[in-house]
């Protein structure tokens, strides 16, 4: 069994619970043992303008395990990858290490997208998703500023994932427009405007669902979708699935193991359609 | 802080490459909230290089940046415009700005410093107390999340708080 250190991030305990639950369920099926990072702390998200302090906060998490570290949040991922780059500087590394209980040496950080790409390749999936058109939404920090996972300008990794899961990927021109999540509390109008355009673009393209890889994107596109519909006077009703929820469906997991009932826009009708299309075949 | 000292401080925080800006506007044209800004990112860099501190710090644009980093990916000079924004935010906060945006960042960082992790409930409550006009949308979202079982009152406290405190104390004034 492969062992991976899991950094859930602060959101996993509340607004992103279905991401945490579905990640753990999918890992179990894939034979991956996720070991929650001991005493993990906040990576600083996008709210620590002092860059040295931000590196220190992220670095602490990189010293909590010898195993490769997997995170599901694109903000945590970008911050941890950035810390690794900055800690190549000997002066900064010595300074940060003088503050930490355990010294930072080096480590591998991956996004759950990478974990799934590796472990789903060439795997026979019991549930066929071929009746679903899925618009993959990258958001900003999965690939930026240059996290090594894919091109920050023309990424394909999520389209490839949708295909690997047996669904049809629909490319949206706004797939990398920021959802506005980081400023939604102090600047709600600006944030909702971005989210609205992303949802509308997927709807116009004829998507059955949007697939996301970050809990903040999910909060904006799913939990705030009702508020957006009221504000703009539109009917969207667009299910927004975490990559782990979609992968879990294809792997044959049920709604409870994937916490599908926690999504604001219910994905259960889609699930029904998937099961019906299979009985027809 | 003099005009020259202001320019030098931003450059110290955000990198020497800023001096090489050719004002091409690639950053502004990549920005997802550019249409809502008073000064474009390109203009902010210009204000910094000219030492126009009060204009730069008063700009709403500093707080409309979502930290999406597309500007940073694309700058042909290797400048990190987002780092310029962060430097300006930091200077605003040091100078005691009490704007809603600055208060949000302060609450966020105070929470990391006191608990090691963010509790969305405590974060939202603290922010709404300081900014009552935000209370309605926050409560609206809270009700939606509560109905889905996604509100946690127990975010836990990190055990290694001594370490967190050392990180803030030693790196927080950089």
| Overall form of chain B | globular
> What is the CATH domain class of the largest domain in chain A?
Alpha Beta
Structural class of chain B: mainly alpha
CATH topology type of the largest domain in chain A:
Rossmann fold
Distance between the termini of chain A: 35 Å
Let me know the largest β-sheet of chain B.
Answer: none
CATH superfamily of the largest domain in chain B, by name, is Alpha-helical ferredoxin
Mean pLDDT level of chain A = 97
**In the CATH scheme, what's the topology name of the largest domain in chain B?**
Fumarate Reductase Iron-sulfur Protein, Chain B, domain 2
Structural class of chain A: alpha/beta
Helix fraction of chain A?
Answer: 40-55%
Proportion of beta-strand residues of chain B: under 5%
H-E order of chain A: EHEHEHHEHEHEHEHHEHH
What is the CATH first-level class name of the largest domain in chain B?
A: Mainly Alpha
Number of domains of chain A: 2
Number of E-type strands of chain B: 0
Q: Could you give the order of the helices and strands of chain B?
A: HHHHHHHHHHH
User: Which protein chains make the most extensive interface, counting residues with beta carbons within 8 Å of the other chain's beta carbons?
Assistant: A-B, 63 and 64 residues
Proportion in helices of chain B: 55-70%
């Amino acid at each position: 069994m492969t062992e991976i250190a899991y950094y859930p991030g602060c959101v996993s305990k509340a607004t992103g619970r279905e991401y945490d639950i579905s990640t753990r369920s999918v890992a179990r099926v894939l034979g991956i043992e996720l070991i929650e990072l001991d005493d993990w702390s906040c990576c600083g998200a996008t709210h620590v303008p002092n860059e040295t302090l931000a590196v220190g906060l992220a670095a602490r998490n990189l010293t909590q395990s010898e195993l490769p570290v997997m995170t599901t949040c694109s903000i945590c991922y970008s911050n941890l990858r950035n810390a690794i780059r900055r800690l190549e500087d000997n002066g900064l590394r010595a300074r940060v290490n003088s503050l930490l209980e355990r010294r930072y040496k080096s480590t591998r950080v991956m996004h759950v997208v990478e974990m799934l790409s590796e472990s789903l390749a060439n795997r026979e999936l019991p549930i066929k998703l071929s009746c679903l058109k899925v618009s993959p939404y990258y958001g900003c920090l999965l690939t930026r500023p240059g996290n090594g996972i894919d091109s920050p300008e023309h990424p394909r990794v999520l389209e490839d994932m949708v295909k690997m899961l047996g669904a049809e990927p629909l490319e949206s021109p706004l797939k990398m427009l920021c959802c506005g999540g980081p400023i939604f509390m102090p600047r709600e109008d600006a944030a909702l405007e971005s989210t609205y355009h992303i949802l509308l673009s997927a709807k116009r393209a004829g998507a059955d669902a949007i697939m996301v890889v970050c809990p903040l994107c999910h909060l904006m596109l799913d939990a705030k979708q009702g508020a957006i519909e009221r504000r703009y006077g539109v009917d969207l009703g667009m299910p927004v699935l975490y990559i782990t929820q979609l992968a879990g469906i294809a792997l044959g997991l049920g709604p409870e193991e994937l916490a599908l009932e926690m999504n604001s826009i219910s994905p259960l009708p889609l699930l029904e359609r998937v099961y019906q299309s299979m009985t027809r075949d | 802080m003099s005009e020259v000292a202001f320019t030098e401080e931003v450059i110290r925080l955000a990198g020497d490459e800023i001096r090489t800006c050719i004002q091409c506007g690639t950053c502004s044209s990549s920005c997802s909230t550019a249409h809502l800004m008073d000064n474009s990112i390109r203009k902010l860099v210009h204000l910094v290089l000219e030492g126009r501190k009060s204009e730069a710090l008063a700009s709403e644009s500093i707080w409309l940046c979502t930290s999406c980093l597309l500007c940073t990916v694309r700058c042909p000079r290797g400048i990190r415009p987002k780092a310029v924004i962060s430097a300006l935010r930091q200077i605003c906060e040091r100078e005691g700005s009490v704007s809603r945006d600055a208060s949000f960042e302060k609450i966020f960082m105070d929470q990391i410093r006191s608990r090691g992790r963010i509790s969305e409930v405590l974060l939202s409550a603290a922010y709404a107390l300081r900014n009552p006009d935000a209370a309605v949308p926050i409560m609206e979202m809270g009700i939606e999340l509560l109905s889905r079982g996604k509100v946690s009152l127990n975010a836990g406290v990190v055990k290694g708080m001594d370490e967190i405190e050392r990180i803030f104390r030693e790196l927080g004034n950089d």
